[in-house]
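Reply to dn_fold:

You asked what the input looked like. This is it:
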Amino acid sequence: MVQETYYNKIVERYMQFCAAAGRHDDALDKAFASLSLDSLDRVDQKISPDGVSPPGSSVSTPIAQKASSLELSVLTMAMRKLREAIVASSRTDNFAQRAYVFIIRAMILTATYESYHPALLHLLYKIHPSTALPSPELHEFVSYHILDLSCRLGDMCNAFSVRKRWDFRDKRVEMVLKALVHDDWVIFWRIRGVVDGYQRKLMFWAEEGMRKHALKCLGRSYLGVDKAYVEWCAGRSWEELKLQDGVGWELEGDRVTIRRIKAK
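and this is what came back:
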């Protein structure tokens, strides 16, 4: 019952965190994005035995103003401790399954692969053979496994191997694999807009590579294009491309000059 009580406290705090952040536009996404391993290290000693941070460790400023990751860091560390406790006790029952499902989903949203990757493998290859996942959830987590292999690790061979092993069929995941194999940014950005939030987070790992490939293709193919077309191909606004990707092309009105013909 100790693990169950700990789990219930984590779920309660997590739901409170999401509810508080959800009142503000994009605040939840910013809070998830702000989580880092450094922040986890800082809060490792701040988690009390009942899974909550001690008085004075919570953030007093609104999440919408500073998008602080302290609360989420505390929760993430608590989830890790719960996962380690379940593994140490060799539990593969319904509770272990339920806890792992919750932890994996939460950690995918924070893009913390150090937490969700081992948990995903444990759920599929240790817990599922003993306590079978319902068919919809099995389909869901196999899709996460395939997307993690293909998008984060770039291991297409193992991604297709996992697909075959689980006899997995999903049109959207198939389109993601096809886009990655063929470096097809058109399909990639299109599918990214229709998958669910968890799959979109996993596709995030492949975005930078796809964006660089798209920009290289534009640079080799055009002298100039419309700004909107560059943004569509790169999946990012012009301002973000300048600041984050270091794009050095010139913008003149709504037209982007990629190359200039040198006078003879």
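The longest helix spans residues 197-221.
Hope that clears it up.
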